[in-house]
Amino acid sequence: MTREWVALGTVLVLLASNLFGLIYSMVVLKTNIFKSFRIQTKNYDSTIFRKRMPLFIFNFLILLSVAGIGSFLIYESIDTTVVSIWIIASQVLFAFVIDDVWFYFFHRWLHENKFMLKNVHAIHHRATTPFPLEYLYAHPLEWMLGMIGVVIAFALILLVMPINIYALWGFGLLRNLHEIHIHSDLELPLLSKLPFLSKTKHHDDHHSKLSGNYASTFNWMDKIFNSTFKE
Ligand SMILES: [Zn+2]
Ligand SMILES: [Zn+2]
Fold it and tell me: What are 82-103's pLDDT values in tens digits?
């Protein structure tokens, strides 16, 4: 696989997952198909998607550029062969754990530092009743600093073994889908049964109550540091 294919594949993974997020958002905002699974009862503002669009596009272009150019530049550190599913799964899981630890402390700091809360993180919290694609709705500085966890995770993997391309793409795909899911305001029956993963309600409560629940992917960081939101 050439350097160009690695970068193109990364871009395609992000395009596909966000196209899904776009369609999912339209279904949630414009139809009643999932209404019975909604966590909150508040109606959506009918102009909300249009209002969010400029920042969605801006942050998505940042994401495509950083991931596409990044994977192009680190090509020599990437193994593009098909390896054992266990190596791929281990790299994906490790990246999720490291990324979540980074996100927990970074997100908590965005709340505890009043300057950052007021001038940066407040933008993401304009969404009190989130819909799927609102995971992209954040101050660009917050959006870029949030990617540091991914860089740390794959840099740590690189200390031990090459980064596998399927692990990189798999992680990118699952991370985006999970972010879309936790901003959906929907508690879907099957997904709410998965162990260890945080439920949509975990992050939905963070948006509606603005207190606690700083982790993203897993719920153990909030349990360890006693920051789980209590009703
Ligand atoms: Zn927050
Ligand atoms: Zn959020």
Answer: 889 999 999 999 999 999 999 9
Q: Which ligand is nearest to the CA of 202?
A: 2
What is the CA(168)–ligand 2 centre distance, in A? Answer: 23
Evaluate whether residue 230 is within a structural domain. Answer: no
Per the CB < 8 A criterion, the answer to whether 135 and 123 are in contact is no
Domain range enclosing 13: 3-224
User: How many domains does the structure of the chain reveal?
Assistant: 1
Ligand 1 centre to CA of 165 (Å) is 31
Distance 75 CA to ligand 1 centre (A): 34
Prediction pTM value: 0.90
Integer Cα distance of 30 and 39 in angstroms:
17
Task: Examine residue 95 and state whether it is found in any structural domain, yes or no.
Answer: yes
List phi, psi (to 5°) of 212: 70, -170
Spans in the chain with pLDDT lower than 70: 192
